[in-house]
Amino acid sequence: MQDDIVHLNAELMSVKQLMAESCDVAACAPCVFDGASNTQGSEAAGIAEVSRDPAAGSTSFAGLTRRLAQDPSAFQNVARSSENKVIVGASSDNKRLKAVITKRNVDVFISRLHPKTSCHELVDCVRSVGDGVKICDVTCTKLHSNYEHLYSSCHVAISVDTADMKRAVDVFMPADVWPCGVFVKRYFNCRNGSEPNQ
Length: 198
Description:
Elements: H1 2-25, H2 39-45, H3 61-70, E1 103-113, H4 119-129, E2 135-143, E3 152-161, H5 165-172, E4 183-186
Antiparallel strand pairs: 1-3, 1-4, 2-3
């Protein structure tokens, strides 16, 4: 156990020494850390030669770090293979196959509505706001408000084509498309199935 502690302390000291010298070594000619001396580099920079600690061995972290610091080809950029690149068809001429239409919901929380606002009025408003976005379906759910006699709150799920999702969020979330004074923000359901988070 004592030998292991001495060995780890020696390795820690050599790593600290390497880190302290790395700032100085970067500006001068490279030094050789394998026991051979590079007199030109070490004399010009005034850096003492560092030899490998025999107790640490050549496979220690400090020994490997010293070797990697001197090897310019130690770190290489690896080009990733483009074999797994996914493409999505965009041809309007090829009609031999038909893709499945996938839909996503833009969930919106709308509050500060008049207490007598109906879900049909809100659905009509959403359809008029979404002019230019292909809306598949709009579902409105009236939420319980703390002061139902003062205002009404709703969750509106706007089902759109997945390809139009980003554009739909950009269309439905600006303030200038909603009536004055209405509070609108994204609506996120909890993953664990508990009460939704507005």
